[in-house]
Design brief:
The chain is built from four helices and no strands. It is mostly helical. Helix 1 packs antiparallel against helix 2, helix 1 packs antiparallel against helix 4 and helix 2 packs antiparallel against helix 3. The radius of gyration is 18 Å and the shape is elongated.
Length: 143
C-alpha cells in the first residue's frame, strides 16, 4: 500500500498537498540558496586546488583565517545545500551554523580575506532574507 507521504518531502507534508503561498516562497528561496551554496562550493574547491594562477588566488598565500574559511565552506556548504534543496530542517540549521561561522571567521581576520568578506556580507543578507520569509510564512499559518 502506498503512503501519502513522499519520504524526501516528509518535512513538507503529504505529497500533492497545496502549500500556502509564503511557504512555497520559503521553499523556493531554500532551493535557490542551495544553488548558491553549490556555486560557492565550486569556487572554494577551485581556490584550494589552485585552478587560477596569481598571488591573489593562491590558497597557500591566504592567511590562516582565510584558509580556514575556504576549507569550512568547501566541506560544509555542499552538505547544507542538499538539506536546503530537500527542504529539511537540518539543512537550514546546518546552513545557518555554516554561515555564522563563515561570517565570524571573515570578520575576525579581515586582512588577506578580500573577496571572502563580500561573500560574508552576501551571507548576512541571505540570512536576513530567510528570517523575513519564515516570519511571513509563520504569520500566514497563524491566521
Amino acid at each position: 500500500m502506498s503512503s501519502p507521504y513522499d519520504p524526501i518531502d516528509a518535512t513538507l507534508g503529504p505529497a500533492g498537498a497545496q502549500l500556502p503561498l509564503w511557504q512555497v516562497r520559503v521553499l523556493l528561496y531554500l532551493r535557490c540558496l542551495a544553488g548558491f551554496l553549490m556555486v560557492k562550493t565550486v569556487y572554494s574547491w577551485t581556490l584550494i586546488c589552485g585552478v587560477w594562477d596569481g598571488d591573489t588566488s593562491r590558497f597557500e598565500m591566504l592567511s590562516t583565517a582565510a584558509q580556514a574559511a575556504v576549507i569550512w565552506a568547501a566541506i560544509m556548504n555542499p552538505v547544507a545545500a542538499v538539506g536546503l534543496w530537500l527542504g529539511a530542517s537540518w539543512g537550514v540549521v546546518l546552513w545557518l551554523v555554516t554561515a555564522m561561522v563563515q561570517i565570524l571567521i571573515n570578520a575576525s581576520a579581515p586582512e588577506g580575506v578580500g573577496r571572502l568578506m563580500i561573500v560574508a556580507a552576501i551571507e548576512t543578507v541571505l540570512v536576513a532574507g530567510y528570517a523575513f520569509l519564515t516570519f511571513k510564512a509563520a504569520r500566514e499559518s497563524e491566521g
